[in-house]
Amino acid sequence: MINFETLCKEIEQASQITIFRHVHPDWDAIGAQLGLKTWIKEHYPDKAVYALGDPGTFVQYEAYFDQVDDEAIASSLAIVVDCGNAERVDDARFQQAKQIIKIDHHPQVEHYGTLELVNEKAGATCEIIANLFRCADIALSQTCASFLYQGLLMDTARFSIATTTKDSFLAAAYLCEAGIDLPKISEACIALKLTTYAYVSYLRSCMRVYKDKIAYAIMEQEDYEKMGLSFAQAKEFVYVFAHIEELSVWTLFTKEPNSDHYKGSLRSRSMQINDIASCYHGGGHALACGVSQLTKDSIMELLETLYIRLMNEA
Ligand SMILES: [Mn+2]
């Protein structure tokens, strides 16, 4: 486990730093990656720092991303954030880096880093990074603190889910000290475009309930495309089915473009489901995870498996 001093020492020894995170980034992955990039650039102005990977739906941050050649990566210190396994890292070239630091809060399934800072109990990777700085008494810039707050806010579902702890609030209080604009950040993370709002309404109308227990919807490529959404956007809305009193598991299956397969998001209020997800080409957190390479038949089989566990736990 590395601490703040080790991280600084590694950065000081590196001529350049590359920062990676998982494919199809979410707010936590982006916040951790760009928050860290901002902090390193501010504190080590002589170092070259690159954020790598496809920004995906985060077009507003495109300017923060870099293109680098293989040699630059090979001679760099790579920091990989918010990603449990090597296969899921956006840009596999991170493996060629001289030194690899993993900072993450997913279940520890693979030690791909030469140095690691992993806390499975943290609500967000941004929380781990914020608390690393907090414990070292570092004053953050507004830009850096805003990035970290975004990831913390969204990965804890606005400080509402079981992964939220005292450490999440300590991190939030610390980030507030940087003078960040809380309502502005919340609005930037949560507000929907009109097209997305229409899609959410459509999604609700498509929701079915499996054996009175599990919410699910199967989204076809033509459905989301006719509403003006890409696959990457369309698959992000499983939260729409949260907060239904009678349903403690909710899922969304989205057809991959020009493929025979669906990708799925699974959520659970309290019953562990990530071990089931791992049997369906997926994984993730205990109560929030993903599955892939599903057919319509395997979707129904998965729903039945989730149902059986629900019945056994009842
Ligand atoms: Mn995360």
TrEMBL record:
Listed Pfam families:
DHH, DHHA1
Q: What are the DHHA1 domain coordinates in residue numbering? A: 228-306
InterPro entries, per the entry: DDH_dom, DHH_sf, DHHA1_dom, Oligoribo/pAp-PDE_c-di-AMP_PDE
Sequence ranges assigned to domain DDH in this UniProt record: 16-151
The stretch of residues making up the signal peptide is none
Q: Which domain of life is it from?
A: Bacteria
| Name of the protein | Bifunctional oligoribonuclease/PAP phosphatase NrnA
